[in-house]
Design brief:
It is a single chain. The protein has 115 residues and is mainly alpha-helical. Helix content is 73%, strand content 0%. It has helices at 13-21, 27-38, 40-54, 57-72, 79-92, 96-113. Helix 1 (13-21) packs antiparallel against helix 2 (27-38), helix 3 runs antiparallel to helix 6 and helix 4 crosses helix 5. It starts with 12 loop residues before the first helix and ends with a helix.
């Protein structure tokens, strides 16, 4: 499984079968597995990355990281601390248009997959 600091692990294709064998499978888990199996999750990740670069969000986060490192001192900042400090700012500053486009694409996927 692939792990992330901010979200639950993404199942590998081999792990997908295990998700369906559990007694209590949530709709979120089913959708996630279907997104991974179809390859659509990677497409959505690429879409979000592109949109965040286009709108300047990535540059804003880079600047925020540099400012934090400058303020605390290069040797006194850990990656974990940087993630803890910047993540709330990053989540709050994602443009609504990017969120709406992602939501629309996920909804269309669900409809087309007949989930």
């Amino acid at each position: 499984m692939k792990h992330s600091v901010n979200r639950p692990p993404t199942p590998d294709e081999d792990d997908a079968a295990e998700y369906f064998e559990k007694d209590e499978v949530t709709l979120r888990e089913i959708i996630n597995v279907k997104l991974v199996e179809s390859g659509e999750k990677e497409n959505l990740m690429e879409l979000v990355r592109d949109r965040l670069v286009e709108c300047g969000w990535k540059d804003e986060m880079r600047i925020a990281c540099r400012e934090h490192v400058k303020k605390k001192g290069r040797k006194d900042v850990t990656v974990d601390e940087l993630i803890r400090v910047i993540t709330p700012k990053g989540r709050a500053s994602v443009p609504d248009s990017v969120k709406a486009e992602l939501l629309n694409r996920i909804q269309n996927f669900i409809v087309s997959a007949s989930l």
